[in-house]
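ok here's Short-chain dehydrogenase:
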Amino acid sequence: MLSVQDQIVFITGASSGIGAACAKIFAGAGAKLILAARRWERLQNLADSLNKEFATDIHLLQLDVRDAKAVESAISNLPSAWANIDILINNAGLSRGLDKLHQGSFQDWEEMIDTNIKGLLYLTRHIVPGMVERDRGHVVNIGSIAGHQTYPGGNVYCGTKAAVKAISEGLKQDLLGTPIRVTSVDPGMVETEFSEVRFHGDTQRATTVYQGVTPLTADDVADVVFFCVTRPAHVNINQVILMPVDQASTTLVNRRS
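and the structure:
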């Protein structure tokens, strides 16, 4: 098992859900954390909680990954002690709406494409060159079962996650000949704020998504991410698809009454 003690781990979308769960598991293993998200207060609360539990080194960034200039500035202005990033976890992502394509919201489309694809690309483009230069690093992209199987109303979201799958595969090929590893972790149903965000804050509708089902938790996904990162240096876990036992595909779900 590869140690992450004192390694610098950069996590986007770190203020909640899978990002926050990743922060916790890596903090517990002695990593140093760069936590980035838009919600500053949530980030600060998470950092306070982690410091109390693990006394870990944390650097916070209030960052919207959709803003290319902000991403460039954030990476180029990192303090020297935080500049040599060992692990990048591209977790920031979201889904908006379940409209049919011909009835979809342009604003929802832009938000998903700008966050799920372009934001991931911006971070990767600015961080991976340093990994290549230092001859070490690991990029973990949080994808989705939606990148493998489409479902009604998922059109653009599924398209963005299919792009993450292709980008991850392409990055792995482009880094061939270097020791840098690339992994895509693609979960099915995970009970986080995902559905609440999808339905624009409609918590009642979001709750029905998980009714009668035991979904994955954010900790389940973080555990898989941690497993992939801590394999021996010569081992690359290219892709992991994980779903709850109650789910067999994007549309086949066992709901107990």
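+1. The chain has eight helices and seven strands.
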